[in-house]
DNA sequence: AATGAATGAGTGTTCATTCAT
DNA sequence: AATGAATGAACACTCATTCAT
């Protein structure tokens, strides 16, 4: 971050603005993509929200799709980073698992953009994620993290053996993700406000219970 | 303007074509909407796939959105109808529940359109489903079906009491739906082909196990 | 009107229905054309308003434009017929002229369709009227009617000589027609409700005065 | 976003093209709208005539209707501006009035678009003019101009008192406007070429005569 | 005589992207 | 680095008219 030592003052200013512009564009794009999906998002709207010129968007990101890919990558990196910070290895297995379920639920709740982004990407058969090497690396770390918890639980006798960490991972995500991504149709089908404060708390309890029953010896 | 005037069995000739055209349009629309979502679907493509004139589409369905609503409604009616036909009330509770989990999974597998349709509808905050009275009626029947199974299970001592049938319903759907809707990103993240025959069978076993552990006394 | 003497009973029925259908179509077309002009009128709307099948419209009138021509012809015949019925030849010249001004004004007021139809026809450079022989015949009678009044007025010493009956005709029409056809923009420009009862009465008085001052010796 | 930012005389380069494009679109739109009315006008044709991209039309004017409104507003401003430039206050009342009648006639002759535009707007019940504040301001100035002439004429004893300037205004417009807007049907009805040079001159003389007789003491 | 299903050419409008400065 | 004008292909939707019965 000692840019001034390397570059003349004029350049420094330009660089700082450039980074800020990129950041504003990314933020606006995340918002627009998550609201309307890749297809429904409008480049003009992103540029306007970012208070940037449309041309800049193309200058920095190449195209709408490449911008989407960057936004998607960042979203995956964000959640994986947050998961790593949970520091589950220092907790007893049961607590670690409960904490992960809770974290997953709360992350989805705080970041509904993540869910819409992933849905959009699956509508497009993951063509953008396929190109992202970094996401794969982060993902491996995540799976091994859950695997470690499982192994510790089996060793302590709390968890039953033979549980596939991938299946468990998927199920932990599923029971939160599905509830939230389908909150609109769900609220109609089940004739209750799935997003009411108490409903959310009840769901979290139900999910923790589901996972613990699933793994317990 | 009555329904019988539109589909009388006698006056085959005049109406047969109309009904056939409507059916072709609906089929093509289901295909196109599920492939590309509401926003990404193209009216021209639907008409072409249906081997019908675009004008007919508007004649019968009013607009792209109304067509989507009809398609969506039909999709919900189809799954609810199929569920009713399972005749779970004559099975022992455990078997009934297992059968429901299996059915849900297999229905999603056979009807990936249903999943994409629901995702699309949630992206639009369920604005179309809100207008559909019939779907609400069908949904109530479905929830009470699961509730009956739970009650029978509690009575027989196999299931523990106090399980919310809505939460259970959501979880049964979630663990299948999430796996399949995110099969593209999932296959990358977890570096395995989630759609391989064996993977699918394994997931079904895992899901049945999850649900039975969740409800068992 | 002794159709039954000429045609067998079965035919009579058909004829009566046919005439009724034609009449309903013409009425509906007059309404729709005068509301929206030739270009803005919708064939579907005409058929619906007439409670007739669209095909009938084409069967009887050939095309939208030919239908418009018929409607227009009828409109001209109607006003010319009404003018002839005024029987102005038996009134003193001044009274005859006043009565004509009054009649013209009131006819336009009662038949706003006539005005819109004529405007529409002029937008199309009178291409439909050109084809109508009958309108020309009726028009001649009308001009000579006004000419007779003028001549009688000159003979009696009330009117000054040398007034062109065509110019007078045009002016009589103009001062009523313009006021009414431009009633919407006029009400804005002059910031008063030109269609209020009193405004209409005032305008009629003003117009009669204008014409009498114009011709008086 | 300020007006001076859009048309600065210095920064010619960037804005000149934009302003020129806007001007070309407006000119083409005036032409197309006056030829075919609002409904009959084609956006494609306007863009083509303007040698501009259709997208620009929407960029600058929002929609076909908003473009129409701008064209209409400009037309009203143009005629009101021209009227103000007549400088009638420095002429004797009679001459001022004659000059106004002559001007009105000649303006309509030179600007047949104005007439068609106004007709189109009245077909749409003045919905666009209603929104235009500027036109109302200009109109007030116009009415008071005629009022001043009348008052001066009454004061000099040339004109009779009690003439409503609005009625006079309407009549001055009417006797020219009607003749010209209905020149196509009129030429058929009266079986004479209303647009022949001599016919036009005769009509102007007739109109001046009509107005002077109307106001003279 | 009457019907309603069907059509192709168009209608206003919007889009992601590029050009000139 | 940044801008705003410009584009062409596509978009949902509509029209007057004809076909099959």
TrEMBL record, chains A, B, C, D:
Residues 42-61 bind DNA. Keywords: DNA-binding. Residues 19-79 form the HTH tetR-type domain. PROSITE patterns: HTH_TETR_2. Pfam families: TetR_C_29, TetR_N. InterPro entries: Homeodomain-like_sf, HTH-type_TetR-like_transc_reg, HTH_TetR, NicS_C, Tet_transcr_reg_TetR-rel_C_sf. One of its GO terms (molecular function) is DNA binding. PANTHER family: HTH-TYPE TRANSCRIPTIONAL REPRESSOR SCO4008 (PTHR30328:SF54), TRANSCRIPTIONAL REPRESSOR (PTHR30328). This is TetR family transcriptional regulator.
């Amino acid at each position: 971050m000692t840019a001034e030592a390397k570059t003349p003052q004029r350049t420094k200013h330009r660089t700082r603005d450039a980074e800020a512009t990129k950041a504003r564009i990314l933020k606006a794009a995340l918002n627009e993509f998550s609201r309307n999906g890749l297809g429904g998002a409008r480049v003009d709207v992103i540029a306007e929200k970012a208070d940037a010129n449309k041309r800049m968007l193309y200058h920095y990101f190449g195209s709408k799709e490449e911008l989407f890919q960057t936004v998607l990558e960042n979203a995956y990196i964000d959640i994986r980073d947050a998961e790593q910070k949970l520091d589950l290895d220092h907790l007893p297995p049961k607590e670690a698992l409960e904490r992960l379920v809770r974290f997953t639920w709360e992350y989805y709740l705080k970041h509904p953009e993540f869910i819409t982004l992933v849905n959009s990407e699956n509508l497009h058969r993951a063509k953008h994620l396929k190109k992202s090497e970094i996401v794969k690396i982060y993902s491996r770390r995540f799976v091994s993290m859950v695997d470690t918890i499982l192994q510790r639980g089996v060793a302590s006798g709390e968890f039953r053996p033979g549980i596939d960490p991938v299946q468990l991972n998927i199920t932990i995500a599923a029971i939160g993700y599905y509830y939230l991504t389908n909150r609109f149709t769900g609220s109609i089908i089940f004739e209750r406000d799935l997003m009411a404060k108490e409903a959310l708390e009840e769901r979290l309890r139900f999910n923790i219970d589901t996972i613990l029953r699933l793994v317990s010896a």
